[in-house]
Amino acid sequence: MKKDVRWKIVFIVAVIILSVFLFYPPKDKILLGLDLRGGMHLVLQVITDDAIDSETDMEILRLQERLKKKNIKVGTIVKAENEIGEFIIRDYGSINERDLRNLLDNEFKEWEHSRSGNDMKVNLKSNVVFYLRDQAVRQAMQTLRNRVDELGLSEIPIQRQGTGERIIVELPGIENPDRVKNILKTTAMLEWKLVYAGPAPTEEALLEPTGGKAPENQEVLEGDKARGNEGYYLVSKIAAVTGGDLRSARRTVDEWNAPAISFTLNPDAGRRFERFTGDNIGKPLCIILDNKVQEVANIKDQIPASSGGIIHGSYSVEDAEDLALVLRAGALPAEIKYLEERTIGPSLGADSVRKGLSSIILALILVLIFMVFYYKVSGINSVIALTMNILILMGALAYFKANLTLPGIAGIILTIGMAVDANVLVFERIREELSTGKSVLSSISTGFKRAFRTILDANMTTIIAAIFLFQFGTGPIRGFAVTLIIGITASMFTAVFVSRTIFDVYFSKRKKREKLSI
Questions:
Q1: What is the pLDDT of residue 295?
Q2: Strand 259-265 relative to strand 308-311: parallel, antiparallel, unpaired?
């Protein structure tokens, strides 16, 4: 046996051992998709207006700081009532107009401004609005991924539906779906805002001193009754610090040994909060979680940038742990709404697995019978190559932690057909060469060389199509694309390299090489 043939055999055996090692035992190594394992399919929508609204708050605070530093006098800065990404500068005075415009042009380049009577209207540019909406969806996907990872649910499919504001989440085999749904949906938007009035038993009583309407730049929020905080509060529309500024959060206990959540701010937010508390000593400040007032306390002194805080409330241990989890994983940039919820029972999933495996085995047996019947002894070559193709495919699925879905099983069956097709192309080329009177070894060599280009072209076009399916398809389509890409790539290796090596080994042990059963 030639030395190069020995190395080929060693390499093939190593690939087989590695593939088996990667996917065995398959029950533990192969991740089943939602349609095979059972679970929940969720379609969520990101309310991207919230992200733009939050960005507007931050820019108003930054503008107020810059105006104070440059000593530019204005009246008030308020958010527009019915317009997203817009605020109004009141009573800035003609003497300050030039300095104000220069400040906006030089340091707020993502905003457009125009005069409206004695006010100046400032709004986000359209391309920036589009960017913020897109980033809100991307950040929401990453936040959801962080949360499911914190729960220990690895490899949960989370993907965007097209280029819109919808996100698809698949939760196969979860034990406590309601808890997971609650954790995913919780915005966990923490805000620190000044309190102007409250608590009041009703909203009407709260707004009575102001004529039944909240003043500009103020809004009414309700206390979180579940946390023992009843009543209504009149608070600032603009948040001093938000949950996006958190550096860490964890469950702890308060001075009464009750579950609570401790947190720390990142350095930039800490400095901003230090300036804010220094400017508002003696005023009440509230902590707001998802538009519910959690607690209120007076600012007694300037709070250092390095300080953290504790969120109190009537939390259970699990509630405190879950809230700390979502805060630690990051606040969602915007509210999320459930548009669709579909449940697949585990019995249906088990039935799908049985039928899928049966279809794979049946397809494999029928193809192998045909190849042995039609190509005689040479058909055994394709049987070995095809078996190895399945081993490599399963090993790759386990290595990349790809979810095997019902369409993925269809992709495996299609891969079996395409892998055999490559062998058929090679064998037919060899037959053509033998019919011209060439020797067996020459016919094999020429057959593989001439068939390789055809195999490469056909498989590459299919792989490119599968890549597009993976990029733009949803969960089941992506599962089909994954198995197809891996299977076709493996088939090019087995149909060309492995099959050729089998022929080399077969004829290296035979003295007479005049005949080939094909």
A1: 75
A2: antiparallel
